[in-house]
Structures are given as structure tokens and as C-alpha cells.
Amino acid sequence: MLIDDRSGSISQADLMDLLRVARGWLDTPAGVMLLQSQQVVIEEALQRCFGQHLVQYGLAPSLLDGSQEVLRNRWHFDLIAEPPAMPLQEDQWPFAAQSLDVVLLHHGLDFCLSPRTLLREASQAVRAGGHIIILGFNPWSSWGLNHFAGRSWLSEAGFVSPARLADWLEVLGFAVEKRINGCYRPPLATQKWLDRMVFLERFGERHNLPVGGFYCLIARRQMYGVTPRKQPARAFPALNLPPLTVGTRRTQKRKSE
């Protein structure tokens, strides 16, 4: 079974511009709502994980700041590589195979040139029994309406279907342990209107409805009955980070399966 990656085209320079715009949006009321909801979800997800090495890649560099539920050694990599993040090409992760305990992709698949390439690189670095935690925008939500209608920067984000992503993970040897949904209010511009819609949040969270603005998939790499050898303490013997190069991403509104 092949991992599909149907698409159009965007340059890496345009992708980096899109990422900067999205990060600026995180300071708006809707962006603050998104991050607050996701920090609660990530804290819950990390309680399932154990080990020493965690790598974060994606939208918000400060996502784990102040969290006490993180593994001892953690790194943040980024396409833009603004401090404190380090640069990383999505198709060349500088980690030995099966050397990490947890990889956290915070909307990484929504902002990349090739979702399947990024997912493959990230998954190869996770040890047997380790976890990959993926947060993404849900196309089947009020947030997805902005995506399909071509409104704001949301129209250019990836919006990979969680059902499709679960299939990709299965191909790569992972089993989805849990899906958590969040942000049932639409991404409204003002705090006043977000407060008026809080009843949607309460109802959606109570029933964990699959129509939240984002989803979190917690997946574990299968061991297939073999006890993995203990990995060296260092996640990578040498960190050689190649310079960013111009590339293209094939992007298209993801279709439902």
C-alpha cells in the first residue's frame, strides 16, 4: 500500500512566508484559543509516553514552554529556524534510526512540502515502542470551511484527513492508540464572539466529537514481539544540518476517502 500525496505546487519560499503568517495569527484570540486547547491535549498525550528523547517540529516554537510533562532531553526543529529552534529539512532528519522516544508534529504536516516525506522521516527516527504525536487541522470542521472556501491563510494549510493519516501510520508500522479532538468553536476574529460560542466547546469536549478544528493522533510504533536493543544515550552521534534549499510542495485540497 502506497502513501498517497496528491497535490499542486508551492515553493519553499512561499511555504516559509505562509508559516510566518500563521505564527503571527497565533497572537489573535482564535490563535490563543487554539494553543491553549492544544497544550491541554499534549499534556494528556505525553502521559502515555516514556523515555528520554523528544523532538518537536511544527507551528509553535514555544508550545512546550513551562510544561513539566516532557522528557528529559528535547529539541525543537523548524523550517524557518528562528531561535531557539534549529534548522531542519523535512526530507533529511539528522537522527539515527529508532533513536527517539517521542516525535511531536505540531501541524508539521499542514506546513510542509510533502506530508508523506515528512511523516516517513519522522517515523523512522522513533524507536520500537515509542510514540509519534500528530496535531493537525481537521478538514471536517468549521475550520475546514475556511480552508475549502479559500479564506485567509487557512486555505493554503495542508488539512490532512485524520482517516488518511491513520492509514499512512499503519503502513509505517504504527498503531493509533487514541484520537483527541478540540476547538469546536470556529476561528472567529473577536474574543467577544468566541465567548458567545463557548457552549459548542463544552458540548464537543463532553462527547469528543470528531468535528473539532484540530485533531491529535497518538500512535505507537509496533514492536512485533521483539525486544528492541537499548539505544545510545545520544540521539544522534553527529548533527550535520544541511542548508535549506528551494523546493516545491504539491498541494491540493485533501479529498475524503
From TrEMBL:
GO BP terms: methylation
All copies of domain Methyltransferase type, residue ranges: 92-134
Protein keywords: Methyltransferase, Transferase
Pfam hit, one: Methyltransf_11
Transmembrane regions: none
MF annotations from Gene Ontology: S-adenosylmethionine-dependent methyltransferase activity
UniProt-recorded name of the protein: Methyltransferase domain-containing protein
Organism per entry: Halopseudomonas laoshanensis
Lineage: Bacteria, Pseudomonadati, Pseudomonadota, Gammaproteobacteria, Pseudomonadales
